[in-house]
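Subject: DUF1289 domain-containing protein structure
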Amino acid sequence: MAKTPSPCIDVCKFKREGHCIGCSMTKPQKKMFKSLKKDDQREAFIEMLMAQQEVMGRYRHWAVAYDKKCRKKNAKLRVLEGGRAA
């Protein structure tokens, strides 16, 4: 299985109180994700990010774009399939 890709969907406009309008990450969160080496850590980060998006609202577009990115890179994530990170 391929490495868990970054949740970034290449929008990168930090206009929502320091959060990207594409993925909801802050600049420190983007930096943190890059430092995560283990897939279970990356999946847990994605799960946290999805919870953050739920609280903030207006991020329904992200799941579709990120799922497409994952399929293109042949990566399967339990959190996108309704499961939880290990």
